[in-house]
Design a protein that fits this description.
- Helix content is about 55%, strand content about 15%.
- By secondary structure, it is an alpha+beta fold.
- The protein folds into 2 domains: about 50 residues, no CATH class; about 70 residues.
- A hairpin with a 5-residue loop joins strand 1 and strand 2.
- Helix 1 packs antiparallel against helix 2.
- The chain starts with 12 loop residues before the first helix and ends with a helix.
- The relative contact order is 0.11.
Length: about 150
């Protein structure tokens, strides 16, 4: 599979149930931030680094909830449609954001590609701005007599 491809994997009901059982079993035996030891075969046991263990727990949690899961390297590029889906906007709106210079892109043939890291950073920044605006509105409400 190419490194830049984003494939969603939707678990079956049985897979979700098994993922929940596995996550629960691992949680009972693993210490937070510590390596997780996995037994590959009768003779081989390996310690997963803490970051890999954390990713594994996250994957198992989402799979147990029946959510689609994907693993994407940070340096990956996404299409305009994939970026629009990540930002919950339409593709034409996203193209307008690119044209305004809000997001960087490069042309591959006649299609645009955006660095996934930039899209995720924009999403995080936008979320922080919304949270700040909401906090400000909550602070202003009593002054306006709305609460």
């Amino acid at each position: 599979m190419p490194r830049n491809q984003i494939d969603l994997v939707l678990p079956t009901g049985q897979e979700a149930l098994r993922a929940g059982e596995l996550r629960h079993a691992l949680e009972q035996r693993a210490s937070p931030g510590a390596p997780v030891r996995v037994q590959v075969d009768d003779a081989t046991g390996l310690d997963l680094p803490p970051i890999v263990a954390r990713l594994l727990f996250n994957i198992l949690e989402e799979t147990a909830a029946g959510h689609a899961v994907t693993l994407v390297p940070v340096e990956a590029e996404v299409t305009t449609q994939q970026a629009a889906d990540l930002l919950n906007v339409s593709r034409p709106f996203l193209v307008g954001m690119i044209d305004k210079g809000l997001l960087a892109s490069r042309m591959v043939g006649n299609q645009r590609r955006l660095p996934l890291q930039d899209v995720l950073a924009y999403k995080a920044g936008n979320r922080a701005k919304r949270r700040d605006a909401l906090r400000e509105m909550v602070e202003i409400d009593p002054q306006l007599g709305l609460i």
